[in-house]
Structure formats: structure tokens, C-alpha cells
Design a protein that fits this description.
Blueprint: H1 2-12, H2 14-21, H3 27-36, E1 39-40, H4 41-47, H5 53-65, E2 69-74, E3 80-85, H6 87-91, H7 93-102
Antiparallel strand pairs: 1-3, 2-3
């Protein structure tokens, strides 16, 4: 019975939840950059060492699906796409910053 309760509490832990959401090669760095400013695909390709179009596209799509990022099409010329942290993403910033401080 005690093991089940501790397992349930571990699942609720915000740090563990965030780590699961940001698992993968590029997601932690994308999240870190999203805290600082709006993201654009081309700038992410330049800023993240080792990123390629396919892996970056997949990571962004997965972060959209778990509602950490919002994708916005800006219809000004030239047409481009920007990514913003959602409210859910913003709520996880303190947990992320605490984890960064441990390293």
C-alpha cells in the first residue's frame, strides 16, 4: 500500500512531469530559448548545435501536442511562423529554472 502511494506522489511531482515532457535531444534547449523570446524555425536551426530540419520539426510538433508551445502563422510579408510558450508552458518555468540550477 505504501509503495502505491509513493508511486502516485512521484507521478504528481512537477519536476518529473516536466522531465517527461522535455525528454529528447532538442526539447530542453527549445524550452529554454522560448523562455527568453519568441521562436522562429530558422533561428532555432542556427542557435541549437546539432539540430537539423527534421529533428527540430518533430520536437516543435511534439511540444505543440503537449501544449507547451503555441504555433502562430504571421501573415505579414514574408509569411513566417512563430512559436510562443503557452500558459501551461509558462507555469513550468520555475520548475525548469530550479532544475537548471541543480546542474
Amino acid at each position: 500500500m505504501t509503495n502505491q502511494n509513493s508511486a502516485e506522489n512521484a507521478e504528481i511531482c512537477p519536476a518529473q512531469k516536466l522531465l517527461k515532457m522535455l525528454s529528447g535531444k532538442l526539447k530542453p534547449e527549445i524550452f529554454s530559448l522560448a523562455i527568453k523570446s519568441t521562436l522562429r524555425f530558422s533561428s532555432l536551426l542556427r542557435e541549437i548545435k546539432g539540430a537539423n530540419k527534421q529533428s527540430l520539426s518533430i520536437a516543435l510538433k511534439e511540444m505543440e501536442e503537449i501544449e507547451l508551445l503555441e504555433r502562430v502563422v504571421v501573415k505579414l510579408k514574408p509569411l513566417h511562423i512563430e512559436y510562443y510558450l503557452t500558459e501551461k508552458g509558462k507555469s513550468l518555468i520555475p520548475v525548469f529554472q530550479q532544475l537548471e540550477g541543480l546542474v
